[in-house]
Amino acid sequence: MVAKVNVKQHFKNTSVQWVEGSYVFPLPENAAVNRMQIKIGERIIKSTIKRKKRSADHLSTSPSSRQAGQPC
Fold first, then answer.
1. Does residue 41 come out as left (phi exceeding 0), alpha (psi in the -120 to 50 range) or beta?
2. Residues β-bridged to residue 45
3. Residue 16's pLDDT band (boundaries 50, 70, 90)?
4. Which of 24, 61, 63, 72 has a 20 to 30 Å separation from 54 between CA atoms?
């Protein structure tokens, strides 16, 4: 089965301070992401999609002290 799905999520920072976070989107083993973009105000950030192994390596070397999946 093949499906193309669009997901829209909204986040609002109600604090007066900047908030840093990691976006983790769990997918089944046989799923794939081919595009992602984030809109902040009028600014659009387009993602760079990496192969699974490389993405996992990137997460494990992240300077952040948080574990993937933990709330910010």
1. left
2. 38
3. very high
4. 72
